[in-house]
Every structure is written in structure tokens, then in C-alpha cells.
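[Protein data]
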Amino acid sequence: MNAYLPLLQAYPFERLRRLFADATPNPAYSPISLGIGEPRHATPALIKDAYCQAIQGSGLSAYPASAGDPALRSVVGHWLRRRYALEVNPATQVLPINGSREALFAFAQTVLSPQAYGTKPLVVCPNPFYQIYEGAALLGGAEPYFVASDPQRNFAQDWASVPDAVWARTQLLFVCSPGNPAGAVMPLSEWRMLFDLSDRFGFVIASDECYSEIYFRDEPPLGGLEAATRLGRSDFKNLVSFTSLSKRSNVPGMRSGFCAGDAALIQQFLLYRTYHGSAMSPVVQSASIAAWNDEAHVVENRALYRQKFAQITPLLATVLDVALPDAGFYLWAAVKGSDADFARDLYAAYNVTVLPGSYLAREAHGHNPGAGRIRMALVAQTDECLEAAQRIVAFVQTRNQTV
């Protein structure tokens, strides 16, 4: 077996299952899950129609190309121009992917070269973080290095705290903006710092931007390619951005997204994917073209989240330390005492599932930055999320009286 497999930690939802193993939920309440970030708004009809039309045609009669349909890559190029006011060559700088999760993992296997150092190379990750970053690093023969985060700045990463000796061993840097779980958006100044470090030390930047279309400010979040363009880096040297239709268009089951950036890196990633066998189904490509071509459903989806968060955030703020994030669909709340105990006891008392924050982070620099926090995914319809919030308020009020 792969010698690196034993290094993998249990995935957060497996840890949650174990946490709840001995907890019996109160049968007086129907189950409500705010645990997993799985969009549950309705899938737009135009996407389903395109999918059905493709499957009724010749969409399943041939093997798909690893590089994807030129029509899909062209549509992605047009979307990037509309969204970020930047230009890419769809033939060389865009690649369809089966959702950002598989691509972020596979991209690390393309980039990492453990033989390049006398010791294991490093993959620098945010903390808290999306668990795929750690798994991709470990299975690629590298060692993850978790950057300190600042709770006073919505858990923004303290890049300046990373020693030069760490950057010198770094082959890959994962960034996530808007962030998971805190929802912070990286400003241009942070991008400038990271680009300067990449130029100096030669590492590759993988920018995870799957939450970019759900935001609460008037100005949409800055993307990595957009930041590079503003800073005169239109070749996107050592930068590849990843995004997905899952959150933007409510199609997590379709597994569709794209990556774009440095043409030399995209070429090597395509080579890897040719052998990896991860070409996107022609049926999914047809539905994806329809999705990327339409913004009306994205505006409507964003409005639903804004209305939902406007109702629920103030309600939860009466009992928890929580505030509206910059973007994304999570609330990242501080709780008193153990976050795991909070999640287990809430589940038992009110049949509401939330994710302990410590499960989304690692002990680094003397502490686990997720400890004492919970992540709530407000992905269900507003009435269900509101019911969950009311139960959480009642739970906290009762809990505070007994602590």
C-alpha cells in the first residue's frame, strides 16, 4: 500500500460521525443539518434542460477529450472577461475539471516533486483549511506547513510570520479566498506579497475560489487572476485558480468547474490528467456551458443567501460571537467551552448538526485556531435555517444557565 496513507487523518465528517455515535437526538425535533457545505437551493431549470438535451443526443456516444470541448473553454474565457475584466487564451490557459475538489488534489500531484530536496518539500496551507490541501500534500510526498491566522482579522493568514527557510522548501501554496470557513477575502496587498514570495522562491500558487459568487458586499471578491492582472502579471506566472459551479449554480452533484492560469502549468496538468483519466462527461460539459453563459440565476442565488444571512446572523448574534462574513455560505461562530462538546450536546438536545471548528484546523504554532468555534453551513432553505437558528438560541440560553 501507499506508505503515505497512514498519515491521513480522519475526514471532519467521519470525526463528526464518531462524536455523535453515543448521542441520541431528541425525537421531539426533526433533524436539521448545518454541517456539510452542500448547496440545497434549487438547480436552475436551464442547466437541467441542457443536461437532458445532451443526454438525449449523442452526449454519451464517445470518449471525452481530457482538454474538454473547445466550446466550454471558450465560454469560460468569456465568463472570466465578464467577471474579472481579464483576458485568457482558452486553448492554453483554461482546463475543465470535475469540480474543484478533485482538481486541487490532482494538481498537487502534478506540482510536487519530493526528489527535489534532501528533505520533504513543504506545502503551505491556511489554518483553518479545506482538508483536501493536507491530504494532497501528504499523498504527494510533501509535508504541510500551516500558516498562523489572526482571529481579529476574520482569520486572515499571517503570511509575514512564515520564515524564509520555510518558503525556501515550499513547492506549493494553497490559498482560499473567499475563505473556508471564515469567509475572508484576500485584498490586493496580500496577493502582491504572495506573488513577490513566489518570484523569490519559485513555488506555485493554487488559488481555491469556489465561493467567489456568494458575497455580501457590493463589490465582488477579488480573484487571483484578477489580482495578477492588476499587478501587471498577465502571464499568471506560477498561478492557477480553481473554481466550480457547485456553489455558484447549485449543482454539487454535477461535479463541474475549471482551472485557469499559467499556460505552462496548465499544459503539465493536462498531461497528468490525460493519464489520470479525469475527462469531463460531454453531457456535463453541455450543462456547464449553459450555466457559465447565464448570470441571472447567480444573481438570484446570491440574493437568497443575502436574505437568509440577514435574518439569521442577528438572531444567532444574540447568543454567539458571530458576524456576517465577507463571502461564502458559512457562519464561523465562537462558543464557550469545547466546540466538540457544544456540537454533540446541541445534536442530542435539538437534533441540529454543526461542525466543530477544531475539526477544520490543525494544532500549529502552539494552538488549534478552530478550537472554541463552530461552522454552520446555511445551505438549506431560509425557513429550515431559521428553525435551526432558533433551536441554537434556545440551546445556548439553557446551556449558559447551567455552566
Summary: The two ends are 48 Å apart (CA to CA).
